[in-house]
Design brief:
The protein has 717 residues and is an alpha+beta fold. It is built from 18 helices and 26 strands. Strands 1, 3, 4, 5, 8, 9 and 11 form a seven-stranded mixed sheet that branches. A six-stranded antiparallel sheet has the order 14-26-23-19-21-20. Strand 17 and strand 18 form a beta hairpin. The radius of gyration is 42 Å and the shape is elongated. The protein starts with a helix and ends with a strand.
Length: 717
């Protein structure tokens, strides 16, 4: 019930803290299985005063149990069966038979030394029973009564006598032994820890081999998972070398993939039984130090804006220095480094938590999964540290679950982008295959629908054309004028607008958001708003007209339940046909006036910029840097007033002409080229100018698709 309750708590907490329900379920299943599996085979039978009574052991329910509790303990003595004396009995001491002796009584005994453990086993269940000996530092010999049943390496009273070796073994108990004395000789002259690394087990042969296979399975899963991830992300890095985060995580995974093979259960011994002990310990500690350095580099690269770069670099150099010491010095030296490594790790954990929390606050992509990964990493690293200190017993299932959850989180951070691309490619491939099969069947249907859509849009063009003022409205007042209007699609977002009130003409070239059908729909709203400003609100000042137009457009779109931020850019003038007094206001779009350089019309230099060429001057009046529509900092539009002189030409336009791609290099035409073109054709009539601008546009475009709607208005007064 406790396991189920704990799993339920993890599941609920995961739903609160994570964003995706499916991911939460994956994590909760991992931890649930780990908790359940970690509870298998556990027992509560302990040795007391060197005696373990197994009469209460239900072997059917628990086919194996740990040898734990108080063993007889003889420091710096190797007492083999038959050598035990009354003097030894007088010096009787009891210590735990499941952890390092240098941790007894707050470090009463040094790590270097040799020890005899004795345990009196009573009431061993009948049948063939076995003893599983776990790896010790550095060598062991095991006796049942006076029978030597197994050795790992060679115990000795000095470094020269000792032959260290790591190996887990399943050893049969001699037949008929229900009550016997288990004597264990251990020695350590080359490691910072002496004695048992893990508890030993008693049980049936099948159960102990199953337990061994479970450990091998967990180590294999963990190692192969990290190896595969490391190779996968290293391959991605080869194809995308700019992303160093891929490199650092692949190196982390590759170096960490070695660790399950060379630590705890030392799985590599099953494949390489005669592996040199010193080489094994060197690799074991390198697999402890190197991954930490690569992980710090990964965090430093992945969260550049949030990570304290110098501090992470210092911590990285310290971990690599530990690795260098491991390579150069013997085990007696570098096995002391975990104490320093613990300090580096705790500082690193604090830094990583700070980085991830900051990244989550700033909503950095992948920060949530990074948070889960860091929690798993810190928990598993803390487990490793506590295990080295003999603070907690081994929990292989939980540890493996944490590692798998960490790897899962990191994979989702780094692999989501690539996975989405792969899924998209697979989807497109599948769709292509489907389309090949269905294309013939759908061809006629598509043609029919295309005709219907084209017909609808064509009819929409008739409606839009009906809204636009006839070009003769402008030419009837100004014989020297033209409107170059070239929609990109059948309907357009650009439109021109002409209204007359007494002797004043209101003329505008407008560019609505988008083009095609969306742009045309916005143009209807904006055209209507301009008409209302004149006809309903009786406004005559261009700046006031644009202010009111903006208000009406925003008001129209606010009525929708959807958030609409569309609007338009516009150049608007009012021109008195008798006095030639002109007022201009613009939303992002300018007004150009071209005059002969001998014309002495006064121009306010603050509002205008002058360009000269071919004996003519082009005066540009900038509009306000804001659109007709929603804007983060709206301000009233201002009007510019001036009086024209006969013979001067006015140009209003959208950005479609200047933004057209073309030419030999496929670049934009640009406003600079447009100004040169306008100045170069001033000696021609306005009608000829219309033809020149149209031909120049088409020649420049060539075979390139038209970029945007085009609207240019020219009026010579």
């Amino acid at each position: 019930m406790k396991i189920v309750a704990l799993w339920a708590a993890i599941f609920v907490l995961g739903n609160i803290l994570t964003f995706r329900t499916m991911i939460t379920r994956v994590y909760s299943v991992i931890f649930f299985l780990a908790l359940c599996l970690n509870s298998f085979g556990q027992d509560d039978i302990y040795a007391k005063h060197g005696v373990i009574d197994l009469s209460d052991w239900d072997i059917q329910k628990s086919p194996y149990l740990r040898l734990q509790g108080d063993f007889e303990f003889y420091w710096n003595e190797l007492i083999r069966p038959g050598e035990y004396t009354s003097e030894d009995s007088a010096q009787l001491e009891y210590q735990s038979g499941s952890n390092n002796w240098n941790h007894y009584n707050k470090g009463q005994y040094p790590a270097i030394g040799y020890v005899t453990y004795r345990l009196h086993v009573q009431n061993l269940p009948e049948g063939e029973m076995n003893l599983m000996t776990r790896s010790v530092t550095c060598a062991s010999a095991v006796y049942v009564d006076d029978i030597l049943i197994g050795e790992s390496g060679k115990v000795g009273t000095s470094k020269d006598d000792e032959q260290p070796h790591y190996e887990d073994k399943v050893i049969p108990i001699p037949p008929g032994k229900r009550n016997f004395t288990l004597t264990i000789l251990l020695s350590n002259h080359q490691h910072r820890n002496g004695g048992f690394n893990d508890p030993w087990y008693l049980g049936t042969e099948e159960s102990l081999y199953n337990l061994s296979r479970k450990h091998i399975m967990l180590n294999g899963i963990e190692s192969s998972s990290f190896l595969f991830a490391g190779l996968f992300f290293f391959t991605l890095y080869i194809f995308r070398r700019k992303d160093k985060a891929l490199l650092y995580f692949s190196l982390y995974a590759l170096t960490f993939s070695i660790r399950p093979l060379v630590s705890f259960n030392y799985m590599i011994i099953t494949v390489w039984p005669d592996m040199n002990w010193h080489l094994l310990v060197h690799i074991e500690y390198l697999s402890l130090f190197l991954p930490g350095g690569f992980m710090l580099l990964f965090i430093r690269e992945r969260f550049k804006e949030q990570a304290p770069q110098k501090l992470l670099l210092i911590l990285t150099l310290l971990t690599f220095a530990e690795a260098l010491i491991t390579i150069i010095f013997p085990p007696k030296v570098f096995t002391q480094l975990p104490l320093l490594h613990q300090l580096i790790s705790f500082v690193s954990f604090g830094v990583l938590i700070y980085v991830v929390v900051r990244a989550m606050k700033e909503r950095v992509s992948g920060a949530a999964f990074a948070g889960i990964a860091i929690i798993c990493l810190i928990t598993s690293s803390t487990y490793t540290i506590f295990l080295y200190l003999d603070i907690i017993p081994p929990a292989p299932y939980s540890y493996t679950a944490l590692q798998m959850a960490f790897l899962l989180s990191m994979t989702m951070i780094l692999g989501s982008k690539f996975a989405s691309q792969f899924r998209k490619a697979e989807y497109l491939q599948e769709e292509t295959e489907k389309q090949k099969i269905e294309i013939e069947e759908q061809h006629q249907v598509l043609e029919l629908k295309n005709e219907e859509i084209t017909s609808s849009i064509t009819y929409a063009r008739r409606i839009q054309s009906a809204i636009l003022p006839p070009k003769r409205t402008l030419s009837s007042k100004f014989s020297e004028s033209f409107i170059l209007y070239k929609p990109k699609d059948i309907v357009a977002g650009d439109f021109y607008w002409v209204e007359q009130l007494d002797d004043t003409m209101f003329i505008a070239a407008a560019d609505c958001t988008g083009h095609g059908v969306p742009g045309a729909m916005v143009s209807v709203v904006c055209n209507s708003a301009l008409n209302r400003c004149i006809r309903e609100f009786n406004l005559t000042d261009p700046g006031q007209i644009l202010d009111k137009t903006r208000e009406l457009v925003i008001e129209t779109f606010d009525q929708s339940e959807e958030e609409v931020k569309d609007g338009m850019d516009i150049a608007l003038i009012s021109l008195n046909t008798k006095t030639l007094e002109l007022k201009f206001a613009g939303a992002n779009n300018p007004l150009w006036i071209v005059k002969h350089e001998k014309n002495e019309t006064l121009i306010d230099s603050e509002d205008a910029k002058v360009f000269e060429e071919n004996g003519y001057e082009l005066i540009e009046f900038k509009g306000d840097k804001q659109p007709i529509g929603v804007h983060f900092n709206p301000k009233p539009f201002h009007s510019i007033s001036l009086k024209l002189t006969k013979g001067e030409t006015i140009y209003l336009f959208s950005d479609g002409y200047a933004d057209q791609f073309g030419g030999d290099k496929g670049k934009k035409f640009m406003y600079k080229s447009m100004k040169k073109l306008v100045l170069a054709m001033q000696r021609e009539s306005v009608l000829t100018q219309h033809r020149i601008m149209d031909e120049q546009f088409e020649n420049w475009r060539g075979g390139i698709e038209q970029t945007d709607d085009v609207c240019v208005i020219a009026i010579k007064v």
